[in-house]
Give the backbone structure.
Amino acid sequence: MGQYENARDQFAEWGIDTETALSRLADIPISVHCWQGDDVRGFEKQVSTSGGGIQATGNHPGRARTPDELRADLEFAFGRIPGRHRLNLHACYMDTDQTPDRDEIELAHFAPWVDWARAQGLGLDFNPTFFAHPKADDNLTLSHPDPAIRDFWVEHGRRTREIAAGMGAALGSSAANNIWVPDGYKDTPADRMAARRRLEHALDRVLEQPFPQAQMRDAVECKLFGIGVEACTIGSHEFYLGYAIRKGLMLCLDMGHFHPTESVADKLTAVALSVDELLLHVSRPMRWDSDHVVTLNDDVQDVARELVSADLLGRTRIGLDFFDATISRTAAWVIGTRNMQKALLRALLQPMTQLRDAEDALDYTARLMLQEEARDLPFGAVWLEFCARHDRPAGQVLMHDLQAYSRQVAARG
Ligand code: RNT
Ligand code: ZN
């Protein structure tokens, strides 16, 4: 008997069907973020600035400098990730000889991405870029007191929704368009209400035009604080939770955007009672929103377990959000995405019925025993089977593959 068959029998003793888990996992797309590939720089021709706490640290050689290089790196990474997935693009990753400002972008500026995604069998997701731009240098965009600056960003937001809808229509797959703005104050503001009202009104304008959900869906992403906006973030959790409920939007929960002891896993079910669809930015905050590569840690496994146990997979879009420039950028994608999948696989292989029965019987001893005994089950063999069935490498082969590619792109300088 092979390793997988052995594992399958061990899981079966706990009433867990590994075949069901494997086929369910194959149906869960992960939206892989483009910005891990080039340290969130993008391809706009004009000089951009950084701000809002978005900054990759490190100088590992091999950063993708052009859209072609980024696509080559993505093809390599997707070739090491089992299953069919999505690419999450930011507006600053346009691929065009033209030099449109953010309020001038159109679907045509992203045509090479759409063609490539179609050829690769990938869905696309999208994001307006409200940072790294001279008009965002004050860490104020949609809530800026200057109406001309607000207008500029409103137009940007509107255009990204059109582009996202165009991508969704072209690929026959609904694109999430996620709004995150860096807006906030470094020090204690005098008038939080005015700023929040300005953000609310600007968002209302951005979202005016309806699009079919089959083409695109809007999400809003809250945050606790960022570098330079320590005292007040205009788009806080309460702000966007309320706004998403009132407007029927998706709420984006980024795992790095809360107090370090808060659990995004715990929030999922609470939010899901009032919001019909969720977007996740799976990340690994270290002491703050540090955007480390996703590991198979307890936080990520807790999130995966909630998605499975609360039956939220059908109304949660799973995206990743990390950027580390101290390690191979392609390896970072592969490691982080596979870890999200491993967390989901483990969640799909829980003895759910027994756990629920124990809880309902107030038998917390049995619940704890089950949770702890389940840790020893042979997940690794099931994961290897998943990789093999999807023709993806694992272990030493994967390791050598990642190292060879990293050496190859190092020549880029
Ligand atoms: C910033 C948010 C946001 C960005 C990306 C690049 O704190 O997490 O999602 O990381 O839009
Ligand atoms: Zn995020």
